[in-house]
């Protein structure tokens, strides 16, 4: 189940971009760890993350659109059953035209 997405801007996360740390002098703090990070994540799957009114953070494969996972904060676990209720209502902070 995917809740409605209102007031949540999707966030695209692709492979990490080199922001110049690898050009630091040899032995400079962070150079080796950042280079390792770039190499280790060069082929990671590009994802799109978005929050929904079901209280979940949804993660979608950016190429296929397939939902890979949804994160539910512990504080909302006990309320998930309410989403299936025919009388469940969701409120927004602004008018929808």
From TrEMBL:
Listed Pfam families? T4P_PilY1
A single GO CC term for this protein reads:
pilus
- Please give the superkingdom of this protein's source: Bacteria
Keywords attached to this entry: Calcium, Fimbrium, Fimbrium biogenesis, Metal-binding
Limits of the PilY1 beta-propeller domain: 2-77
Where found in the cell? Fimbrium
Q: Which InterPro entries match?
A: B-propeller_PilY1, Quinoprotein_ADH-like_sf
Keyword Repeat among UniProt keywords: no
Molecular functions (GO terms): metal ion binding
**UniProt family annotation:** Belongs to the PilY1 family.
State the name under which the record lists this protein: PilY1 beta-propeller domain-containing protein
Q: Which organism is it from?
A: Chromatium okenii
């Amino acid at each position: 189940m995917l809740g409605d997405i209102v007031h949540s801007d999707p966030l695209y996360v692709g492979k990490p971009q080199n922001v110049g740390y690898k050009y630091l002098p040899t032995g400079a703090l962070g150079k080796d760890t950042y280079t390792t990070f770039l190499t280790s994540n060069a082929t990671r799957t590009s994802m799109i993350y978005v929050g929904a009114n079901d209280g979940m953070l949804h993660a979608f494969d950016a190429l296929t659109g397939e939902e890979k996972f949804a994160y539910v904060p512990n504080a909302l676990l006990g309320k998930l059953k309410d989403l299936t209720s025919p009388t469940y209502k969701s409120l927004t902070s602004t008018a929808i035209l």
